[in-house]
From TrEMBL:
Residues binding substrate: Q78, R330
Name of the protein: glutathione synthase
Domain Glutathione synthase substrate-binding: 63-179
Lineage of origin: Eukaryota, Viridiplantae, Chlorophyta, Mamiellophyceae, Mamiellales
EC number, UniProt record: 6.3.2.3
Gene Ontology molecular function: ATP binding; glutathione binding; glutathione synthase activity; metal ion binding
InterPro entries: Glutathione_synthase, Glutathione_synthase_a-hlx, Glutathione_synthase_C_euk, GSH-S_sub-bd_sf, GSH_synth_subst-bd
A Gene Ontology cellular-component term: cytosol
Key words, A-Z: ATP-binding, Glutathione biosynthesis, Ligase, Magnesium, Metal-binding, Nucleotide-binding
Enzyme class label: ligase
Binding annotation for Mg(2+): E243
Binding of ATP, residues: 182, 239-248, 250, 279-282, 305, 332, 338
Length: 354
């Protein structure tokens, strides 16, 4: 890990929180079209939201712990957020991998696997305070921990457990992380489920009008969903619980996977597809685009995906912040099924306003 910000740190520079948000902000600085591009404050908003969590914990000596992958490639976007946290809010950031946290972090004086909880009831002492490398941390910002590859051993799982047990604000917590999975999205789309969380009938109806079809591949309706996918493989995509691009199955790969379906298969056994959901494929309009890569200009038909960030902070049952926090537009060739920027399938872009 390394300390970022201030006169003792290294070089300065989402959910994944604000993943690529810092890099996306810079695209709106195009000199020729600047008046036609919307403002994008994703970088400032990311730092402001993390700083709000830091302020809420009322420990001016604490820092933000950014959890990163070993040999991280997507480092510049992360360092921009750390730099903005220091420059705008005076908050320092330390980077560490899950393995480093396992080896060196404690909660309430207990090492990983121990019994935490020291310090409760003493004035000025936070119960379950997170400490690492001689520093105390009031916010944990996860830029790793989203894929199975981030947990190659039990040590990484123990580190994640330690962070969850700590009093630090987590971005995101395990509960919020799970709430954003494909499976939860599919369950929310089931009849009557969304309405439990959106009691205003008209609001729920408006939201459902923009839902794509989402279908479970376990339970009593799984066989019907599989039949739908096999009948129209180009109209659906098979999605696992993964982030980062390169994981979805389309066309022939989708068909091959669905043909293995066995409703009697045990969980995790061949024929069990419960780790996937079947989603109606979204077919966005095509745009004629000039793309520049490695000094070469190419005229391509492209499609774009617009993501809108939200800065959300909740302490206990109190919602401290819930506001818009910029956007990210990713553009890719229409012939590409996947769309991750870091994975090499798409590029950062900006909407053009008329």
């Amino acid at each position: 890990g390394g300390d970022e910000g201030g006169d003792g740190g290294g070089d300065e520079v989402d959910r994944v929180p604000w993943k690529e948000g810092g890099a996306g902000s810079g695209v709106s600085l195009s000199a020729q079209l600047v008046n036609m591009l919307p403002e994008n404050a994703a970088l400032d908003a990311a730092a402001a939201t993390l700083a709000a969590g830091w302020h809420a914990m009322e420990d001016p000596a604490a820092k933000v712990l950014m959890v990163v992958q070993p040999e991280e490639r997507n480092v510049f976007d992360q360092r921009w957020i750390a730099a903005r946290l220091w420059e705008a809010h005076g908050v320092r950031t330390v980077r560490a991998t899950l393995r480093e946290i396992h080896d060196g972090a404690t909660v309430g004086g207990a090492t990983v696997g121990g019994v935490g909880g020291g310090g409760g009831g003493e004035p000025g002492v936070v119960a379950n305070a997170l400490e690492y490398g001689g520093d105390t941390f009031s916010v944990v910002y996860f830029r790793a921990g989203y894929t199975p590859g981030d947990y190659p051993s039990e040590a990484e799982w123990r580190a994640r457990e330690l962070l969850e047990r700590s009093a630090a604000v987590k971005s995101p917590s395990a509960a919020m992380h799970l709430a954003g999975t494909k499976k939860v999205q599919q369950v929310l789309a089931a009849p009557g489920v969304l309405e439990r969380f959106v009691p205003a009938a008209q609001d729920a109806a408006d939201m459902r009008r923009v839902f794509a079809g989402l279908y479970a591949l376990d339970g009593e309706n799984a066989a019907t969903a599989v039949a739908q996918g096999l009948a129209d493989p180009e109209g659906f995509v098979l999605k696992p619980q993964r982030e980062g691009g390169g994981n979805n199955l389309y066309g022939e790969e989708l068909t091959a996977a669905l043909q293995t379906f066995d409703p009697a298969a045990a969980p995790g056994a061949p024929g069990d597809l419960s780790a996937y959901i079947l989603m109606q494929r979204i077919l966005p309009p095509l745009t004629h685009t000039l793309c520049l890569r490695a000094g070469q200009v190419a005229a391509l038909e492209t499609v774009s995906e617009l993501g809108v960030y939200t800065g959300y902070l909740r302490i206990g049952e109190q919602v401290v912040m819930n506001r818009g926090a910029g956007h990210l537009l990713r553009t890719k060739a229409a012939t590409s099924d996947e769309g991750g920027v870091a994975a090499g399938f798409a590029v950062l872009d900006s909407p053009q306003l008329y």
